[in-house]
Write a structure and sequence with these properties.
mainly alpha; 2 helices; 65% helix
Length: 102
Amino acid sequence: MLTVFKVNADAERAVQESVNNFLMTSQWISSVPVVFFAAIAGALSDEFGRKPLIFFPILGSVITLGANMINYAFIEQLPLEFFYLDNVASFFGGDQNKPNLT
C-alpha cells in the first residue's frame, strides 16, 4: 500500500511541475508583447490618431476566439502547446479578461 502512495506522489509532482512550466510560459507569452506594443502604439497614435489603433486589439480578440474554438473542438487531438494561442491577443495590444488558472 505504501508503494501506491509513493507512485501517486511522484505522478502528482510530475504533473505539478508540468502545469507550472506551462502556466509560467503562458504568462510570459501574454505579458512581454504588451510592453513592446504599448511603446510602439503611443508613437503611432500620435501620428495616425487613436481610432485606427482600436482595430488591433479587436483583431487579436477575434484570432484568440478562433483559436479557442479550435482548441475546444479538437481538444483530444491537438498538443497541449496549442493552448498558447490563447495569448494571441496580447501580441495585438489587448488581452482578454480571463480567469487566472492558478
